[in-house]
Amino acid sequence: MDILKLKPVLKDYIWGGERLRTDFGFQSELDKIAEGWMLSCHKDGKSTVDGGEFNGQELGNIIEKFGKEKVVGTRSLDFPYFPVLIKLIDAKDNLSIQVHPDNDYAQRVEGEFGKTEIWYVLDATPDASLIYGFKNEITSEEFKKAIEDNTLLDVLNSVKVKKGDLFFIEAGTVHAIGKGTLIAEIQQNSNSTYRVYDYGRLGADGKPRELHVKKAVDVSVTKPPKYGCKPMGEPQDKGGYISTLLTKCDLFTVWHYDISTSAEFEADEKSFNHVLVINGSGSINGTNMKKGDSFFVPAGYGKYRIEGKCEVLITKI
């Protein structure tokens, strides 16, 4: 199977902006584009192939046809579902303050897996910030009271952000992306989200958006986050490109590559490679690629080459 270019699934949430349209070239009749789901086999948005032999087909159907082990890789056998979901997120306004459950709670209550994720900041306005856990450890009862008293913002940890920051959002971490932030998100393949605060905003129906306070209190870790805001590895100059390990955990490994001329990679039998172009342009095995393009390199494909002047995120399991 050849490398598959994927078409993004676009979402028009109320806090979205225009940068995915203007900066990344996404075309849509939506009034605003909040998210582009760049790799997804989730029921709420399924990636389809853009061009080639499988044009228009859902990635999930291709995986089912040729076999999960062969296409996704042998490591996928540890997961009873397609393991990751990758997004681009443009926050023109603040996202709601929310939390995601862990696997045990999500499977028991929601019928799907939990959600641990990372945020890699692609760009941010000078005043951009986000919510990342609590300032100090509090009890679940104190957390619930802060929600009820409308003092939640007083106990949460607000962090200024800049391009290149990396946040590891473990399941149970209360968090929120702030306005003016453009982010690449790599996450577990789950859409379970519990909203605890939404700035009093109204939804498209003119009513306040639903909160999920009891569930949020059940799953939240009410202490400061144990991770910082830096990539796991230091930049390594490889000649022709600079590589940086962003994160490595039992769910996914993500690298940032700043390519000035060319770089060679390999998709072995253990895992597919997902290539997300976050800046610049070039080619992947001779196929033109530009900012905003998404490519799925099947497991066992072997070596492939990226040429040009570009930045890419490569994700494996």
Q: Level of helix content?
A: 10-25%
Main sheet?
10 strands, antiparallel
Rg to the nearest angstrom?
A: 19 Å
DSSP, total strands: 23
- Which class of secondary structure composition applies to the elements? mainly beta
Low-pLDDT parts are none
Inertia-based shape: globular
- Number of helices, counting only DSSP H or I runs of 4 residues or more: 7
Order of helices and strands: EEHEEEEHHEEHEEHHEEEEEHEEEEEEEE
Mean pLDDT metric: 94
Strand content: 35-45%
Distance between the termini: 19 Å
Describe the structure concisely.
This protein starts with a strand and ends with a strand. It is mainly β and 317 residues long.
Explain what the structure shows:
The chain has 317 residues and is mainly beta. The protein contains seven helices and 23 strands. It has helices spanning 19-22, 59-66, 68-71, 103-109, 140-148, 152-155, 213-219; strands at residues 4-7, 9-11, 35-39, 41-42, 45-46, 48-49, 84-91, 97-99, 117-124, 129-134, 156-160, 166-169, 175-177, 181-188, 194-197, 236-237, 241-248, 253-259, 262-267, 273-284, 287-290, 294-297, 302-316. Strands 1, 6, 16, 17, 18, 19, 20, 21, 22 and 23 form a ten-stranded antiparallel beta sheet that branches. It has a six-stranded antiparallel beta sheet with strand order 2-3-7-14-9-12, with no helix packed on it. Strands 11-10-13 form a three-stranded antiparallel beta sheet. Helix 5 (140-148) runs antiparallel to helix 7. The chain is globular and about 60 Å long. The chain starts with a strand and ends with a strand.
